[in-house]
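Below: protein 1.
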Amino acid sequence: MNSHERRIVERRWPHAIDIDNDDELLEQCSAWLHDNFGTSRFGRRHNPRWCFRLNYDYLGFAKYAIGAQIYFRKERDYLAFLLKWS
């Protein structure tokens, strides 16, 4: 996600959920989101229904992922995700 996409998501996408660093859960959630809501790529004129951003933490010069944030444009998509994964 580039800086322009990050600004759009943080300003206009009100529904977000944080997932802790569990690689297996992230893979399962990602597969389910791709199957049900399509791709998370930003197009020239088309925003996706969902996107994600990894949360990073720094240890000296190295950074490592400590989880992810998943953003949804619509409340019904957010609620469907919560019903499935909570």
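Below: protein 2.
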Amino acid sequence: MLTYAQIVGIFQSASLGMAPINTFAEGDLEALDATSQNVVYPYIFLRPLSSQGMFNTSIGTSGYRTITFELYSMDVPPLDESNRLSVMSNTEQYIYDIISYVNLGSTQQRDWITLNNITPLSEAFNDRVYGWVATLNFNTQAVYDFCAYPAG
């Protein structure tokens, strides 16, 4: 089973593997405001929301785990906002590209993303960003493993 850190690493690799993306971060909403950190746009931010834990098979030995995230894809248009539509188009596509990285890439046999919804952002977070926030589920196969039990 993937650890939480490994899942974040997959999102980070998918994000920073795209030529346009300059910054990736993960955390709570307080960490999202660019006024408190060195963010270079375009920016992908991953916020964990919830998880029901691992779903078991009927005999309780394996299944899958789902973690729900908000995935923010953001950029800042020039001051005249002439490229706002272009920014909205590009930032939406970045979300789909990240989903494709997981669903169609090398981890597709054990991990997958389902998209719940996508909502536009306009002049958000005190720094004139535009983009999208997607609510999605990261699903990964999981197996209970007594051999990994940390006996003392």
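The longest strand covers residues 129-143.
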